[in-house]
Amino acid sequence: MRNSHISFEFFPPQTHEGVEKLTNARRQLAALNPEFFSVTFGAGGSTRDRTLETVTQIKAEGFEAAPHLSCVGSTRENIRAILNTYRDAGIRRIVALRGDLPSGMATAGEFQYANELVEFIRNETGEHFHLEVAAYPEIHPQARSARDDLLNFKRKIDAGANSAITQYFYNADSYFHFVDECQKLGITSPIVPGIMPIVRYSQLARFSDTCGAEIPRWMRKTMEGYGDDNESIQAFGRELVVKLCEKLLKGGAPGLHFYTLNQALPCIAIYQQLGLSK
Ligand code: FAD
């Protein structure tokens, strides 16, 4: 039986070694019976073939695969072709995103925001795909205000998205507040928290600076204090993320989406401590 609303995200590997590593990680995570595995997509189409290859492998292993699809820098014709390929490959779920233009890429293409992509997919393919969209409990970095961002999130739901996955965060209150605000606007679709296990502090700090996810000061200071002692950082991070997940699930979160960075063990450790594998 699949664990409903438990999912794992991968990026498409670039090398043969990376493919083998991901295949192993996937095998280990498959034992946890997730609802689906998702695979990221480089904005501008840079990973188009590798994303397709990875989702095709996942499907062949008997699991639901959800490719991410970002529209920035793309044309309708491009997106239509990708949708047809996914439909032909038996894909039923897509994570629909705007994406961020890679530096040096001048044109925004024919889509400006993710709500336009959701609308386009619905017009082209009806209800064939279950559409996930991104949500930002700590506010998207380019949003003019929290209210604007919330209303922009609602546009994606109104355009036909079925559910959402959040950017990662370490402050559960931001998630509960966001869900409350959505409910006030009549949004009842599941909003699944995105969970980032803590594996390497430097990497996490870099990601967080660019995507607008906050690492609270006390967490930064504690992890900085561990210096090169990665084992202590991981133990600290594991305990913290387990507590976060417990709080989220107890508070009514409909599930968890793990950003795996193609590594199984950190997610498995969290999963086991949560008692989800029973
Ligand atoms: P949008 O929902 O379009 O929002 C982008 C910004 O524009 C926000 O500030 C919003 O408030 C504003 N906005 C939205 N609609 C409007 C409107 N109609 N008018 C005016 N302003 C508007 N990136 C990748 O490149 N590949 C991936 O595979 C990928 N996967 C992701 C998965 C998840 C779960 C998450 C949370 C993010 C992912 N990202 C990925 C990152 C994402 O592409 C970036 O965060 C990007 O900056 C925004 O994408 P979006 O779909 O949220 O955009």
Describe this structure in words.
By secondary structure, the protein is an alpha/beta fold. The chain has a single domain, classed as TIM Barrel (Alpha-Beta Barrel). 47% of the residues lie in helices and 17% in strands. The chain is built from ten helices and eight strands. Helix 2 (48-60) links the parallel strand 2 (34-39) and strand 3. Helix 9 (230-250) packs across helix 10 (265-274). The radius of gyration is 18 Å and the shape is globular. Bound molecules: flavin-adenine dinucleotide (FAD). Flavin-adenine dinucleotide is lined by residues 40-41, 43, 68, 70, 95, 97-100, 113-115, 134, 140, 142-143, 148-149, 152, 155-156, 165, 167, 194.
**How would you sum up the major sheet?**
8 strands, parallel, barrel
Counting DSSP E segments of at least 2 residues, the number of strands comes to 8
How many structural domains? 1
Strand-residue fraction? 15-25%
* Distance N to C terminus: 12 Å
Give the secondary structure arrangement, pairings included.
Elements: E1 3-10, H1 16-30, E2 34-39, H2 48-60, E3 65-70, H3 76-88, E4 93-97, H4 114-125, E5 130-135, H5 146-158, E6 163-168, H6 172-184, E7 191-195, H7 201-211, H8 217-225, H9 230-250, E8 256-259, H10 265-274
Parallel strand pairs: 1-2, 1-8, 2-3, 3-4, 4-5, 5-6, 6-7, 7-8
Helix pairs in contact: 4-5, 9-10
This protein binds flavin-adenine dinucleotide (FAD).
